[in-house]
Amino acid sequence: MQRQKLAVMASVNTESWPEAAVVGMVVTEDLEIFCSTFRTSRKFENIKNNPRVALAIGWEDGKTVQYEGNAVDVTDDESSELLKSRLASIPSIAKYLERDHQIFYKINPKWIRFSDLSVDPWQRFEITF
Questions:
Q1: Which CATH number goes with the domain that contains 120?
Q2: Which structural domain, as residue segments, surrounds residue 64?
Q3: Is the full-model pTM beyond 0.90?
Q4: What's the confidence (pLDDT) of residue 1?
Q5: Would residue 107 count as lying in a domain?
Q6: Is residue 1 part of a domain?
Q7: Which residue would you say has higher pLDDT here, 96 or 52?
Q8: Counting beta carbons within 10 angstroms of the beta carbon of residue 32, is it exposed (0 to 12), middle (13 to 18) or buried (19 or more)?
Q9: Contact 83, 74 (CB under 8 A)
Q10: Residue 91 has what pLDDT?
Q11: C-alpha count within 13 angstroms, C-beta hemisphere, residue 93
Q12: Where is the Pyridoxamine 5'-phosphate oxidase N-terminal domain (predicted)?
């Protein structure tokens, strides 16, 4: 997971409709995910009302991770600066990091499934937190 830089994040709006978007991310050794969005985005409104999110990570070579967790605001400046520096290594994300209406999230894992569909039989394992 730590080699991946992008994921598809799903959140749910106030009418219970799912909404998905690609996000740049950083994964810690504790399997926490850090990402960012704008305060003007649908994702921001969704997470404000319901912090539960799901992510699909990696899809190359038949290997993928399904990840469910709760998103919380990163409020301390030191963590925000560290996150900015790590996300800056992702070219498609770097240009958005200095916007005033940027917000950073830490996603705490609740359930993770790794699948390797490139082998026969398929390999899968799950972690519940």
A1: 2.30.110.10
A2: 6-128
A3: no
A4: 76
A5: yes
A6: no
A7: 52
A8: middle
A9: yes
A10: 63
A11: 23
A12: 2-113
Q: What is the mean pLDDT of residues 47-72?
A: 95
In a domain, 109, yes or no: yes
Place of tokens 């917000």: 103
What amino acid is encoded at 127 in this protein? I
Q: Rounded CA gap, 49 and 107, in Å? A: 15
User: How many domains does the chain divide into?
Assistant: 1
Q: What is the mean pLDDT of the chain?
A: 87
CA dist 109 and 22 (Å) reads 18
Q: What does the pLDDT look like over 89-103, one tens digit per residue?
A: 666 666 565 666 778
Domain membership of residue 119 (yes or no) is yes
CA 104, chain centre distance (Å): 11
